Each structure stands twice: as C-alpha cells, then as structure tokens.
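Q: Predict the bound structure with adenosine-5'-triphosphate.
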Amino acid sequence: MLSIKNLHAGIDEKKILKGINLEIKPGEVHAIMGPNGSGKSTLASVLAGREDYEVTDGTVEFAGKDLLELSPEERAGEGLFLAFQYPVEIPGLSTTNFIKTAVNEVRKYRGEEALDAVAFLKLMKEKMAQTNIDQTLLSRSLNEGFSGGEKKRNEVFQMAMLQPKLAILDETDSGLDIDAIRIVANGVNKLRSKDNAVLLVTHYQRLLDYIVPDFVHVLYNGRIVKSGTKELALELEERGYDFIKSENVEA
Amino acid sequence: MQNELSAIEKTVLTDYKYGFVTEIEADEAPPGLNEDTIRFISAKKNEPEWMLEWRLKAYNHWLKMSEPTWANIKYEKINYQDIIYYSAPKQKKKVNSLDEIDPELRKTFEKLGISLDEQKRLSGVAIDAVIDSVSIGTTFKEQLGELGIIFCSISEAIQEHPELVKKYIGSVVPITDNYFSALNSAVFSDGSFCYIPKGVRCPMELSTYFRINAEGTGQFERTLLIADEGSYVSYLEGCTAPIRDENQLHAAVVELIAMENAEIKYSTVQNWYPGDKDGVGGIYNFVTKRGICQGAHAKISWTQVETGSSITWKYPSVILKGDYSVGEFYSVAVTNNHQQADTGTKMMHLGKNTRSRIVSKGISAGVSNNSYRGLVHVGKNAANARNFSQCDSLLLGDKCGAHTFPYIEVKNNTAVVEHEATTSKIGEDQIFYCNQRGIDTETAVALIINGFAKEVMNQLPMEFAVEAQKLLAISLEGSVG
Ligand SMILES: Nc1ncnc2c1ncn2[C@@H]1O[C@H](COP(=O)(O)OP(=O)(O)OP(=O)(O)O)[C@@H](O)[C@H]1O
Ligand SMILES: [Mg+2]
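A: Predicted complex:
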C-alpha cells in the first residue's frame, strides 16, 4: 500500500530525512519510534504533502499512485490521513461543519454523492459512540480552547469519520490520560482491517500494549536504523536510545 | 514555506459577476455641478419649493467646504464638474404598477438575482429597486400599506408624505455635517423611504437594491427610515455596478430614527465594483449613515458586509439619546487587490444607561488597506454608559495592511468602556490542516474567513446570510493558493 524508497527531504538548506525506506502492506500496523528531532513528524508531513519540505530524492508510492505528485487534498482523497502532533485551531468554524466539509470533499474526490444531513448525522452518532467523544466538543469552534487531550481525541474522531486507507498518527498518545489512550487505541483497532494500514509515531511503549504493531522501526537522524517486532519497543523502553546512538555515530 | 507564501501573495482577479451594462436609453443631466443642475434635478422630480431650497442651501454650504483628508485612503482628486448628477432610465411612461416596468430593467434585476415579481420573490422580503438616479419600483407596497407601513422611494415620499420628509430629512445628518453629506443633500436623486407606525412589527424584510448602470454618473441616494414608538423593522440594502475603467462616485446618506421602544436593524451587503486587480476603476463609496435612538429603550443595530468598492469611507453611527437605548455595529470589511477601506462607527452616548457594542472584522488580502476607525463618546450626562468594542483583523499574505484607530472620549466617570483588538494571519498550517482533510485551499480559505466573520454574519437576516457567505469567499477568490 505504501512504499517509500530512499526518501530524502529537508527544509531550506537543512537535510532532515536522509534516505528512508519503508514498506507497508494492507492490514499492517507499523510503529515508528525515535529520539526528539529525529525526523518522525517530518516524515509524516512529507507523506501528507506539506509544501514547506522539499523532497530532494527518492520515491513514494501509495495505493498504486506516485504520492509525491499529488496535492495534499488529493492524498486525503486517496485515503491518507494524518492525525497531527499539534492540531491547529480555526476560530469560528464549528468542528461539525469542518468535518462535514471534509467528509463530503473526500466523497466528491471519489465520485461519491455528498452525504445529506440525515446520513451525516447517523455516521456522526455511530463514530461518536465508537470514539467516546463529547458532543459539546463537536459544536465548538475547531480545536479552539480544546485541552491537549481533547484535540487528540478530535483527531481520532476525524479519523473514524474519514475511514482512511492509511492512517498516520503522530504522537496521538502524547498528553492523553490512561482512559483516553485506551479510546485512541480502540479507535485505531476498529479501523484495522485487512485493507487498511496504520503508521504510529510514538514515544511510549504503553500505546503498543493496546495497539499491537506488526513492526517497530527506530528513526534516528533521518534514517530508519533499526527495525523489528514489538519486542524492539520493549528493549527501547528499557535501554533508552543510547545504544542506538552509539551504534550510529555519524561518520 | 517559501512556496506557500508566494502562493498566498499571488493574487488573481476574480471575475466580478455583476459587471454587465444594461443597454437602455437614459435621461441625463449634462455633466457638472452648479445651481442649475440642482434645479434640473428638482424639476425632474417635480419637487415642492421647500425641497429645492433645502438642496440649494446644502449646495451653497458645500461650496464652502473642502474634501476631508483624515481618512487612511489615497485617491486622485475627484473632479466634481466631470460627474453626471442625474441619470434615469427612460421609461416609456409613468409606471403605475410593477407589471409596467420596462422588461429590460426587469431583466437587469433578475440577472442580479433580484426578482421584482412579487409572486416569485421570497415572500418575506419587500424590495425597492433603484437604478442610477431613480427608483423603478417597490414590491409589496399594498400589503405593507394595510399595516400603515409606508415603503416607497424618497421621491415618492416627497410627493405623498411631505410632512414626514420635511420633519425628518437632515434631522440626523444635517446638511452641514460633512463634505459628502452636503453634496448628497444638494443633488440626491433617489433612495428609499420607510415609516413604521406605532406598535407595528414589520412582517417582512424591507430591502433596497441599488444599481449603478450609466457611465460617468455619480449615485447619490438618500434613505430615510423612521420607526415610531414600539415598532420594529429589519431593513437590508444591496449594491452592485458594472465593470468600468473609470472611478464612479457613490455618496449616500442614510438617516434612521428610532422612537421610544422601537428597534431598527439595518443591514448592508455592499458589493459595488471593486476595480480590477491593478486598481483601475471601481466605485468610491463615500457614505454617511447615522441613526438616532430618540426615545428610551430604543435600539439601532447596523450590520454591514463590505466587499466591494475601490474605496470605502463610511462610519454608520448611533446617537444614543434616549435612556437605556442600545446601539450596535457589526461589520465585516473585505479588501483585496488595491481596495482601500476606512470604516467603523461612532457611538454617541448621551442618555443614561445607554449601551453599545462594536464588532468589527477586517479581512485584507493582496496589496489592500483596511482600517477600522471608531469613536466611542460618553457625554457628561450619560451615567452608567457601557461600551464593548472588539476589532479583529485577518491578513492574507504580507503585502496588505490592517489598521485600527479607536478613539474614546469619556466625560462621565460611571461609564465602562472596553476595547479589544487582535490581528492574525491566515496560517499556512490552518490551510494545510484543511488540505489534509481533503479540503482544497479555496474552500479552506472560505471556511476560515467565514469562521472569522461568524459573529457578524450571524446578525444578517437568514435570507441573506448564505448569499453574504458566498460573497465573502468570492471576493477573496484567488488571493490564497
Ligand atoms: N519547519 C522547520 N524549519 C526548520 N527546521 C525544522 C522544521 N521542521 C523540522 N525541522 C527540524 O527537523 C528536525 C526533525 O524534526 P521533526 O519534527 O521531524 O522531529 P520529530 O522526530 O518529530 O521530533 P519529536 O519527537 O520531538 O516530535 C528537527 O531538528 C527540527 O528542528
Ligand atoms: Mg514530532
């Protein structure tokens, strides 16, 4: 579903991603861990099509298409979803109205009819129950004045509403209380199917207790320097990143 | 970053949808302004002597005045001798009913989305349609008449209700008030007149649609609205003009009078031609709008959505004379390309326990300039006056300007005056967030600015809110993305 080959990207003169290779198949859950500043969010942004970053080398194929050729909204239409590490606030725009626009724009891209008010409400109700989100949150302005945890829940709710093929979650577990982590995990697990894939960026092994990944990768200094299974996450939790860093002293 | 910014800066001209010209023969005064021009206009309208005298007084006063320069706007000096002060579409004969309106004119309004056909019209809205210097028809007059409501053109009011016009015209905006209002008083050609009798709640939206059509003309409309004790009216005006290279002057005066316990809600959706992307052409919109809360517990609320005109200079104001009276000003002003707006309000607290609320949302894009200018005055007898002002500016790109000039004069120490102001930019991260959810940049900008302007848009009558939202989006089309 997603095939990243030798991806180099940066901003201005700064090189951030220095040759990422990653293969994600339908049905898989991949976790990416790594120290602060290693390039995790950059990778997520580049995949989502943020123009600030310049791709200098490499290819990315998504669902049979050259991902790098598509605009951010086309990528969303193709089924790529990014739960942001720092969701933005849009004052005055109701969360519900925003999500309704998003759902219908994506449907339009796929040549589907827009959902009418009734159908949309039904979908909302279903997903609200699933992700345990407070209704009053959805009638407020998008993310405005939301607590850190509420913003993350809102991301998960949007993911549930959009049912993406590939969901990238950038530290969606950070700042969440234990119950909320379960809810996020639950949301992701509900999305899991043989056709969908998930890329989780996280610092904590705890999330992986709830969402068991098929693969764990360590991103360090713009490269994936280690890949393994769930056990790798446990090892990192125990030993920290030092052993990785010492193994990868830059030449 | 670089990429996105240059995209934001890239301003493209939106097609102005209302830029067509109607080919219709006009009855015009020769260009230029002198006493004869005024006599010509007055004679055309078959006005009584007192009206002509009033006009001439205004003209003579105007001659002694000079054009104001304090606003934060720049334009070439206007040559008042080049302007045509009277232009009326030639109608075959006097029309006695709406059915007799020239089909060409009827079509013009239909193209603008305004149907003069009472059956087809939203049943909740009565319309007075004004083209260049004259009103061509008013809908729903009879139904309104049954309630004692007078809704007609000001020319007709001068003929039919001279006592009301004589009593109130110039009572809120005196002819000596300012340069443009003096000019308007001398040469005003048409506009709407409305009187709501005691205790009557006007059952429909009243609305005037102003259209400039003829070349080289100025439009000088005059609107007078009186809400007698305990009455209520909601009134809306809309405006458009053809695309032309020349600048055309629009200098209107609107006067509102709210008696005890009366409420007037006055909404404007102003979409005069804004000029092209290089700043050529467009309407100079120099307007004086003022209301007085004459009696206790009266309320006047101005709501404006200003998207058009190359220059907008207007400060809809409220004189809060009656105790416990309330004044409100809700404004969204959008400037794009080379547009300039200097707009705001004056709240004059004279009575006790008077309250006012100002919510101004300025949106600037392109190389435009958008200024809020407001005065809150609390007189020495205005015990317990309250004012709250909120002025927010939103910038698209970094070549445009937003300015706030709040003036506060307080002469009574029991007054509470609060002012808040913010300036923000449409964030690339906001747009990217929307893009990531499948929403293209154009739609994202529309969502963001409508969110920004929501508090004001919510004040508009339902029938127009949707239109106004679209208009906001259209005015900024191409300014981001
Ligand atoms: N817009 C930018 N401008 C300048 N430098 C940037 C920008 N975006 C990222 N960087 C730099 O690139 C590096 C990688 O950042 P990134 O946000 O991808 O790290 P991360 O792995 O997500 O870190 P964290 O775990 O703290 O979220 C950092 O050194 C960061 O400062
Ligand atoms: Mg990060």
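A: Chain A touches chain B through 34 residues (CB under 8 Å).
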